[in-house]
Amino acid sequence: MFKCICEMKLKNPGLNTICTHVGEVPDEQFKGAISPIYLSSSYQFMDVDVKRYPRYFNTPNQEYLVKKIAALESTEAAMIFASGMAAISHMFLAFLKAGDHIVVQNTLYGGTSNFIREEFPKLNIEFTFTNGYTVEDFEAAIQPNTKLIHIETPSNPLLTITDIEAIAKLGKQKNIVTSIDNTFASPVNQNPAEFGIDLIMHSATKYFGGHSDICAGAVAGSVAHMELIWNVSKNYGGSLSDFTVWMLERSMKTMGLRVKAQTKNANKMAKWLTKQPFVKHVYYPGLKTHPEHKLAKKQMKGFGAMLSFELEDAFDSDQFMKQLQLIKASISLAGVESTVLSPTQTSHALLTPEQRAEVGISDGLIRFSLGIEEIKDLKADIKQAISAIK
Ligand SMILES: *Cc1c(COP(=O)(O)O)cnc(C)c1O
């Protein structure tokens, strides 16, 4: 069921060819240009190779879309879920049982961090948040019962960079499965399988969807690992509806174009922000001043379309966000429209002030998701917002 090798006749198709064509459901009947959508929740079970049911993650639209994701991440197989959190939780629960231990990066998406802190104690799964994000920090946290190491790079919201290859090596050496949250980079900017990471997870709500109208998640990896996840997922049941799968396939056709344009904007914006007198600090791996710039250059194809910054103390970040007209202050990220948010008030609101301080998230921090607008218009919007609050 999980054989997802690209079926194209073309050898080694490039990024945009994969985005556009891999994983299309062939329209045998009418020869339409796009995938037909199969909404059926009931399929014949006799005389068929595959017994299909939406919760088994194997309806036609589901089965085809995962080929696109596997091709983009250069893995054998992939699965899609009803949200990024469903992808994360099903993946974790496939590799962890009572008595096991997971090592997780301390700078982590707030939802993942909450899931671990709130759910794992109920399940008697042990966890350690690392003290930092160097390979030594991860190694120091390993115990005899460690079954999974989970990293996030670039991380949310401070864009720290973890050495993917070093973590993959550590996992292999210690016989521990490794996973990465690759949401911020997207497969356009980073392919962790090239460095030996076992499981690659995405919130497809973000760059896969790209238009702020889809909630979905994905995990990519080997057939053997996907089968383990499937065994758990069919019980928990967080599968994605076929209509959303179809929307997602359509959205992913332009992912290469979108993310490259967004990444270009982020590079320009980061450089421009560092020169503005109203900005105290900019966090972006593409800046030469970023502590892990060299590492980012080694393991990323592009530096991504997310950045964070702090305004000088004289400027109130809430007032600033309220004055923005083109750039919307909204939850979530990665849409074609630029957005900003305060991690303290949104993504990391459930952490205590102490927990936030520990990972370096100040109340004034602004996370910036670059869209595809003209960069001059984005700069103009920021300038007028600063003038308005002066
Ligand atoms: C949004 C996000 C998630 C969670 O995804 P949902 O689709 O909202 O469930 C996980 N990790 C990162 C880095 C995210 O940005």
From TrEMBL:
Pfam families: Cys_Met_Meta_PP. Its cofactor is pyridoxal 5'-phosphate. PANTHER family: CYSTATHIONINE GAMMA-LYASE, TRANS-SULFURATION ENZYME FAMILY MEMBER. Gene3D superfamilies: Aspartate Aminotransferase, domain 1 (3.90.1150.10), Type I PLP-dependent aspartate aminotransferase-like (Major domain) (3.40.640.10). Keywords: Lyase, Pyridoxal phosphate. The modification N6-(pyridoxal phosphate)lysine is found at K206. This is Cystathionine beta-lyase. The keyword Lyase applies. GO terms for biological process: methionine biosynthetic process; transsulfuration. GO terms for cellular component: cytoplasm. GO terms for molecular function: carbon-sulfur lyase activity; pyridoxal phosphate binding. Belongs to the trans-sulfuration enzymes family. It comes from Olleya namhaensis. PROSITE patterns: CYS_MET_METAB_PP (PS00868).
